[in-house]
Specification:
By secondary structure, the protein is an alpha+beta fold. It has helices at 5-16, 21-31, 41-57; strands spanning 64-68, 77-89, 92-103, 106-116, 122-124. Residues 1-25 form the signal peptide.
C-alpha cells in the first residue's frame, strides 16, 4: 500500500473547505490527479462526514464503506475507511485511519493520524511513535 503524507494534509485542507487562497492553489496543483483532487464540494463534504463518524464510532480494525454516487458525468467513488489503532498523544484521543478511495481507474491509498480537538473536530497531525 502506498502512503501519501502530503495527501493527508490535502484531505484535511479540503475537509475544512475554507483554506487560504494561496495554500489552496498549491494543494490544487498537487492533488489534481488524485481521487480527492477531483471531488466536488458535495462529495468532499460527504467524505468528511463519514470520516468523522468512523473516527467517533468505528472499532479499530473494522472497515466501513463510503460511496459517492455518480453525478452528471462524474463516475461514482467507492471508499473504505478503517481505523487501525487508537492512542492518547499529548492529552488528545488519536486514531490512525487507513483510507482507500477508487474512482474508475484512479486509486488513492493512505494512512494517517487524526486527533480529537477540544471542540470535537478531528485534525490530522503527527503522532509520536510507540
Amino acid at each position: 500500500m502506498t502512503q501519501h503524507p502530503l495527501l493527508r494534509t490535502a484531505l484535511v485542507c479540503a475537509a475544512l473547505l475554507a483554506p487560504a487562497a494561496p495554500a489552496f492553489a498549491y494543494l490544487d496543483t498537487f492533488i489534481h490527479g488524485t481521487v480527492i483532487g477531483t471531488m466536488s464540494q458535495k462529495e468532499s463534504a460527504s467524505l468528511v462526514q463519514s470520516v468523522g463518524k468512523v473516527l467517533n464510532e468505528g472499532t479499530d480494525g473494522t472497515m466501513a464503506s463510503w460511496t459517492s454516487p455518480a453525478e452528471s458525468k462524474r463516475k461514482p467513488i467507492e471508499g473504505q475507511l478503517t481505523p487501525l489503532r487508537s492512542k492518547t498523544d499529548k492529552g488528545q484521543a488519536c486514531r490512525q485511519l487507513k483510507m482507500e478511495l477508487k474512482r474508475a481507474d484512479q486509486e488513492d491509498n493512505w494512512t494517517g493520524w487524526f486527533c480529537k480537538q477540544n471542540d470535537g473536530r478531528w485534525r490530522s497531525r503527527k503522532v509520536a511513535d510507540d
